[in-house]
Every structure is written in C-alpha cells, then in structure tokens.
Amino acid sequence: MTKFITFVSGKGGVGKTTATLNVGHSLTQLGKKVTLVDANLATPNLAIHLGFINPEGTVNSFVRKEKNLREVTYVHESGLSLIPASTSYTEFQKTDPKRLVQIFEHLDNTSDFVLIDAPSGLGQEVSQVLKHSDEVILVVNPTFSSVLDALKTIQLAEIHENVVVGVLLNLTNGGKHELKASEVERILNYPILANVKVDKKIRKSVHQNLPLTQLFPRSKSARQFKLVAQHLCLEENLP
Predict the structure, then answer these.
(1) Do residues 10 and 152 lie in contact, with contact meaning Cβ atoms separated by under 8 Å?
(2) How far is C-alpha 16 from the chain's CA centre?
(3) Where are the domains of the chain?
(4) Which is it for the CA torsion 99, 70, 41, 3, positive or negative?
(5) Is the separation of the CB atoms in 135 and 164 below 8 Å?
(6) What is the pTM of this model?
(7) Contact call for residues 167 and 184 (beta carbons, < 8 A)
(8) Cα distance between residue 130 and residue 212, in whole Å
C-alpha cells in the first residue's frame, strides 16, 4: 500500500524541495520505490533540481486529461521517479488545484512512498494536497517566524486528519541568534527528525542536478536526511 507523505511549511524558502528530494533518494537507497510529486503549482522547483527543464508532460497536463500517468512520469538517474509541475504561468492559470485528487488516485499502489512537495502557506492548493495525504513532515528554519507559521500548518494538517510525523529543522548554523532544536520542539510539540545545517554541498548538488545523498552520501547533511528516511521505514513496519 502506498503511503502519501507531504512536506509542508508555513512560509517559502525553508527548504521543502531539498528535503523532499533527499529524503526520497534516501528511501530508494533503503530499497523503497519512491515517486516525487511537485504539487507547488505556482512556483515549482522539484524538476529543476533534478535537471528537467520545461518538461512536456506535467501534473498540469495530467489533471486536464491531456497526458496519461506514464507520459508525465520521469525517471532520474538516481532511481527516483518524478511527476513535475509546469513552470509556465499560463499553465498555472489553466490548472484547477481541486483536480489534484486525480494524481493521488492514479498513484495509489504504484510506489512504496509518494512524497509531495507542497506549496507554502495555508491556501487552497495546500488544503487540496493535505486532503489526500496520509502524513506530513514539517520543514522549518530556526527562526520564530518560521516556527510560528508552522503552528498554523500543523492545525491545517490536523483538520485534514494527517499524521504529523515530525520536524525537519533546516538551515541551522548553531549561532546564538537562532532558536535551539529543543526550543523548536517545545513550541511545535513534535519531535525533530533531523537537523540539517547550512551546507555548501547542498548548493553544489542542486547545481549538478543530483540529490545531495547521491553526490555527497557521507556528508553530515546527507546523514540527517537519511535519518528521516530510516524513521519512515521503521514507521512503515509498525503493526
């Protein structure tokens, strides 16, 4: 049975796409079949991170029944399957977020995990994704604004009966002008699954269109993403 897990945040720029990509690749390294879906219809970046620029088949064309599932699914050399969203503003205008339900229905029982890169914020697009997700992982930065926005996201996820797996704390540097991991846990009341520090290797991996966990598998950041994947696999095996 496929598990649908959405990576969410209250605000943009916190690193959802990087987290989705690298946790997904870490799951493939653990022998799982993984499909990534870019549900950020307004500002999609997932395909760009993997080197697919302006793909012809997108989730937009799928929900309008112009393409079938095979025609919008791309396989990356890392072993990940990807369903991109269009970067075209015209395509964005033509796509009804309510129709995203179609992609979830067709992906059920096709992979072990479907990881969804959600839009930021609390709008209609996010709600449509959460309606059809099983679980969410919160991606936050160590700032009050990011964490407080995540509180609202938690409430939205709970309204849609999603299980909140935990928090991926991203872009930390250990400085005195940021929240500590323990403070983030206390505010959100959910465990931190990984603490990913600011890392130039992540930028290098994006530039080379590869997951960090593939290009620099022994890096500290890669090990943090792998912790999340291991947690998801352990959770999958619980009775």
Answers:
(1) yes
(2) 5
(3) 3-236
(4) positive
(5) yes
(6) 0.96
(7) yes
(8) 27
Name which of 117, 172, 176, 162 is nearest 140 in CA terms: 172
Nearest CA-CA partner of 37 in 53, 20, 52: 20
| Residue 55 CB neighbour total at 10 angstroms | 18
DSSP one-letter code for 119: P
pLDDT in tens, 30-68: 999 999 999 999 999 999 999 999 899 999 999 999 999
Question: Residue 82 CA to chain centroid, in angstroms?
Answer: 12
pLDDT digits (tens, 9 = 90+) for 11-32: 889 999 999 999 999 999 999 9
Angle at 143 between CA 141 and CA 149, to 5 degrees: 80
Q: How many helices (H) and strands (E) does the chain have?
A: 11, 8
The C-alpha angle with vertex 116 and arms to 113 and 120, in degrees rounded to 5, equals: 155
Give yes or no for a contact between 91 and 58, defined as CB atoms under 8 angstroms apart: yes
Q: Report the DSSP beta bridge partners of residue 4.
A: 114
Q: Which CATH class is domain 3-236?
A: alpha beta
